[in-house]
Design brief:
Blueprint: E1 2-5, E2 13-14, H1 15-21, E3 30-32, H2 40-44, H3 51-63, H4 69-79, E4 86-90, E5 93-97, H5 107-125, E6 133-138, H6 142-151, E7 157-164, H7 170-177, E8 183-188, H8 192-204, H9 206-211, E9 213-216, H10 222-225, H11 230-241, E10 248-253, H12 258-268, E11 275-280, H13 285-292, H14 316-322, H15 327-333, E12 334-338, H16 341-355, H17 361-373, E13 379-384, H18 392-399, H19 407-413, E14 420-422, H20 426-434
Parallel strand pairs: 5-13, 6-7, 6-9, 7-8, 8-14, 10-11, 10-13, 11-12
Antiparallel strand pairs: 1-2, 1-3, 4-5
Helix pairs in contact: 3-4, 3-11, 4-5, 5-6, 6-7, 7-19, 12-14, 16-17
């Protein structure tokens, strides 16, 4: 499979280059030249297959031309050492729980897959290339922990996690600042968009790229966002087994838009989702695009749902490209919703009091969007993207309960914080990396 840039001015790349470089030379995002539809027979019997079996079929369509079958199967099965179950919340609303991985967030799937695929390519070329691969990742919350833990101890790779100072929860911060080994946490005096800008600028700096081999593990990387399609196919299979797959609406809490983008790729492969809802917090850039046809990025606003605090979502470029830059095509398949912090609090309290289900602030946006947006005959599934205990203080204060912290999350909190403080000036970041 070959990959082109959304900006259309970079050379065509193979999968290895797309994964190792992360970003194309023209600052565009890599897109596969074609999306392979899956056969009808696959969907006819999908409910009889396991999550890993389903994921391998999807992975083969994406990566099978470039990775040996046995190696790809091992990557998929190692990645999915945990389940992503569908759980009923109320009559016509279900949640896809994506927090059963090592760091209790949906990004465990993409991060673990990417770590294993990148290591596969490093091992293939280790006899001819000895250079360490340096992974740069900007995080507004869960990406950093998922990537850091996915790559922890992987030979030949060093990870730099950039995060906005004081704008991620203490529990989230502990998951990537306490690891040491091949993980370096960089605390940036700014917002997530500043962290993302530093990463993109690093990729474009010729001197820095001559000094060290760089790649990204944000959802701009095809090996990070494409595997996230796995759990949408699994959700459909589980809903079909319940007899609830007709007119299925998938609602995705959205920040940098990699998660919903992977769902849309699945839809292009034939996944029978009726329509999609992108649920936003107060950072409503995509929501306004749907209303007006104008994409107008702006500075991000800090909210309770911090992982969605993105003012210029990178993966909008992929969605725009996927549908031929047509606002009509995009808005006919995807609707939007946007919620204030107070509406998020209200939704979390209401859901807990009515159903006993505990939402995290991001999942609350998805749940409310389905409550307000489902039509007659539709059944909705929203993504619960992180375990509510990752936002324990916030969740406890909102629902008036003392939620239990899972053992593996508590273990992170006992570690010693190790981080490097950094300004948002690229010159400082470059100086730091050049000294490594």
């Amino acid at each position: 499979m070959k990959y082109y840039s959304t900006n259309g001015k970079a050379p065509i790349a193979d999968l290895q280059k797309a994964v190792v470089k992360g970003l194309a030379e023209d600052r565009g995002l890599y897109m596969p030249e074609r999306i392979k539809p899956l056969p009808k027979e696959f969907f006819d019997t999908i409910e009889t297959k396991s999550f890993q079996e389903i994921a391998y079929t999807v992975a083969d369509a994406f990566f099978g031309e470039d990775v040996e079958a046995d190696a790809l199967k091992k990557i998929v099965y190692d990645t999915l050492s945990f389940d992503c179950p569908v759980v009923k919340v109320k009559d016509n609303i279900y949640t896809l729980e994506l927090f059963h991985g090592p760091t209790l967030a949906f990004k465990d799937v993409g991060a673990r897959f990417m770590a294993r695929l990148l290591q596969y390519f490093i091992l293939k070329t280790q006899n001819t290339q000895k250079k360490l691969v340096n992974v740069l990742v900007a995080t507004s919350g869960d990406t950093g922990s998922a990537v850091a833990n996915g790559f922890l101890g992987v030979d030949g790779i060093h990870v730099y996690v950039l995060y906005p100072k004081g704008k991620v929860s203490k529990i989230q911060e502990s998951q990537f600042t306490t690891l040491g080994k091949n993980i370096t946490a960089i605390e940036v005096d700014g917002v997530f968009d500043d962290c993302q800008a530093l990463v993109k600028s690093a990729f474009m700096d010729a001197e820095l790229n001559e000094h060290m081999k760089l790649t990204s593990a944000n959802s701009i990387n095809v090996a990070r966002f494409l595997p996230q399609a796995f759990y949408y196919f699994n959700a459909y299979a589980r809903m079909k087994a319940l007899g609830k797959a007709d007119r299925l609406v998938m609602c995705v809490p959205s920040g940098n838009f990699g998660n919903i983008c992977s769902a849309l790729f699945g839809h292009e492969m034939g996944l029978p989702i009726h329509r999609f809802i992108a649920a936003n917090n107060a950072n409503d850039i995509f929501y306004k695009y749907l209303q007006t046809g104008k994409y107008e990025p702006k500075a991000s606003v800090q909210t309770l749902a911090n992982a969605m605090d993105v003012g210029d979502p990178s993966n909008f470029a992929r969605i725009y490209d996927l549908y031929g830059k047509s606002h009509e095509r995009i808005s006919s398949l995807i609707s939007g919703a946007t919620y204030s912090d107070e509406q998020i609090r209200e939704t979390m309290r209401q859901c807990y009091n009515e159903t006993g289900y505990i939402l995290d602030p991001h999942g609350a946006c998805g749940y409310r969007a389905l409550q307000e947006g489902l039509k007659d005959g539709e059944v909705g599934v929203f993504c619960e993207t992180a375990h509510p205990a990752k936002f324990k203080e916030t969740v406890d204060s909102i629902i008036g309960a003392d939620i239990e912290i899972p053992e593996r999350l508590a273990a992170f909190m006992k570690g010693q914080k190790q981080s490097v403080e950094m300004t948002k000036d690229f010159k400082d970041f470059k100086r730091f990396l050049m000294s490594r």
